[in-house]
């Protein structure tokens, strides 16, 4: 079976848009030309990839099975072209990095500065997301590496190594909160206060719930729930609500004297960050250079 990149791109566009007409506009081809590419791919596979209906096209079982491989093939081809251009000196190395919010806010800027200080020329595309979103982006080739504290390993994703970067997660409040002046808060007075909590099912919420359960207590009542870490910091800063955040997400506000961490040993947590990549394929020279920069940043 021979797979052509034009056929695969046509196949993916139709799969994503569900219509030959919409896909033809997206790839700037006529409908007959796009239909010809699709049928050539089906002949090459020896199977129908779409069910054709008056209102559109739907993937068959064979088509569903081909989608992740088509994305992976096109991803590798794109990276190969970038790498060859980089080695010829025709372009700046490009690395696509996925990171959770705290890493994107504190650790990565330091790493990029270390690279630039040493004369490494790279263009970095950054995707910020949750651990699940980063794992999906790695699997479909949208990013080269991901940095997260979650365990992202599965059939498509594998860990490269520890970043050497870690931080504490703490109960935080506005510096104008009555508890801010308390040297050590009791667990009861903290849990009885008003809170802005991470959304249900998010990793920060799960970690906080684990800590609260470990202390034999019940979760505090939420005045506000949000899946946005920056929103948690904003509510903490501008109200008398407590929050629970990793240091990286309130470091700037702490430096500005707006937010402080409370000394609540039962709810304190420490987490480390790890680098992940796809199991299939190889890292480009740009991605490898970026990883070397992370080593330098973690040692500084």
UniProtKB/TrEMBL annotation:
PROSITE patterns in the record: HTH_LYSR
GO cellular component: cytosol
UniProtKB keywords: DNA-binding, Transcription, Transcription regulation
Domain of life: Bacteria
InterPro entries reported in the protein's UniProt record: HTH-type_LysR_regulators, LysR_HTH_N, LysR_subst-bd, WH-like_DNA-bd_sf, WH_DNA-bd_sf
GO molecular function: DNA binding; DNA-binding transcription factor activity
Family listed: Belongs to the LysR transcriptional regulatory family.
Protein name in UniProt: HTH-type transcriptional regulator CynR
Organism field: Croceibacterium atlanticum
Gene: cynR_1
């Amino acid at each position: 079976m021979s797979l052509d990149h034009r056929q695969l791109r046509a196949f993916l566009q139709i799969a994503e848009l569900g219509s030959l007409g919409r896909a033809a506009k997206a790839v700037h081809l006529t409908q007959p030309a796009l239909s010809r590419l699709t049928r050539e791919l089906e002949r090459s596979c020896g199977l129908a990839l779409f069910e054709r209906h008056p209102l559109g096209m739907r993937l068959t079982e064979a088509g569903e099975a081909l989608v992740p491989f088509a994305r992976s093939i096109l991803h590798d081809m794109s990276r190969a072209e970038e790498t060859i251009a980089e080695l010829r000196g025709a372009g700046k190395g490009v690395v696509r990095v996925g990171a959770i919010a705290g890493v994107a806010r504190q650790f990565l800027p330091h790493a990029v500065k270390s690279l630039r200080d040493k004369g490494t020329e790279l263009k970095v595309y950054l995707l910020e997301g949750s651990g699940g979103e980063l794992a999906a982006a790695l699997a479909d080739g949208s990013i080269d590496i991901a940095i997260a504290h979650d365990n992202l390993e599965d059939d498509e994703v594998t860990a490269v190594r520890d970043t050497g970067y870690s931080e504490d997660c703490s109960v935080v409040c506005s510096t104008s909160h009555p508890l801010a002046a308390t040297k050590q808060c009791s667990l009861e007075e903290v849990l009885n206060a008003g809170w802005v909590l991470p959304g249900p099912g998010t990793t920060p919420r799960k970690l906080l719930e684990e800590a609260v359960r470990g202390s034999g207590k019940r979760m505090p009542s939420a005045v506000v729930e949000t899946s946005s870490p920056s929103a948690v910091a904003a509510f903490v800063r501008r109200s008398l609500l407590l929050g629970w955040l990793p240091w990286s997400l309130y470091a700037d506000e702490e430096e500005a004297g707006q937010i402080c961490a409370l000394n609540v040993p039962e709810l304190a947590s420490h987490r480390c960050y790890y680098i992940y990549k796809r199991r299939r394929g190889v890292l480009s020279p740009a991605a490898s250079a970026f990883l070397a920069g992370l080593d330098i940043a973690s040692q500084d």
